[in-house]
Amino acid sequence: LGGPEWEVLLGRRDSTTASLSEANSDIPSPASDLSTLISAFVKKGLSTNDLVALSGGHTIGQARCSTFRTRIYNETNINPLFANSLKSNCPSVGGDNNLSPFDFQTPVVFDNEYYNSLVNSNGLLHSDQQLFNNGSTDSQVSSYVTNSDNFFADFVSAIQNMGAISPLTGGQGEIRLNCRVIN
Ligand code: HEM
Predict the structure, then answer these.
(1) Fewest CB atoms less than 10 Å from the CB: which of 12, 30, 58, 89?
(2) Does 141 map to a domain?
(3) pLDDT tens digits for range 38-64
């Protein structure tokens, strides 16, 4: 995929529980506005700078139609050509699980093209476009468009911060034999 490398700390163990209510309260939805995204990250000890850098993870991967339908049909801060290009694969009714890439220019390369899409109003999720919507984070997005080394350096720092959010260590949790299910 390309992209930067970083050291991943060892000794981090898997949880034996999961919480639907905590996931719903602590993980920001794709319909979130900038202030909600910022406060969700701050709640976990991550800065606004971390939010913008980590969102660059959307340089790869795809999202389901149900997560961006409202944006492509109803929002005005979206490039109309981009919105129209998504509609055949994401009709106004049905096709909820049809996928579109976040970064349609280079969907399988870890680069700064995600930020370029934001400045061109080609953000896929409402939450993506919030990072460049005449707000406090516009300048950081613009800086990543012109300097991908900056993005890579900030991404490494931010993902190390994110990885340090209360990991289970020692005798806590377990090491899963199948990473998708508890032992
Ligand atoms: C800022 C808040 C974030 C929101 C609101 C958000 C939202 C989403 C949504 C809605 C999807 C699509 C899920 C689906 O359709 O089932 C997604 C996928 C993805 N997200 Fe995020 N995300 C956020 C932050 C992050 C971060 C911090 C990373 C990593 C550093 C990340 C990496 C990814 C990747 C790689 C995918 C694609 C997964 C795949 O293709 O299987 N996202 N995100």
Answers:
(1) 89
(2) yes
(3) 999 999 999 999 999 999 999 999 999
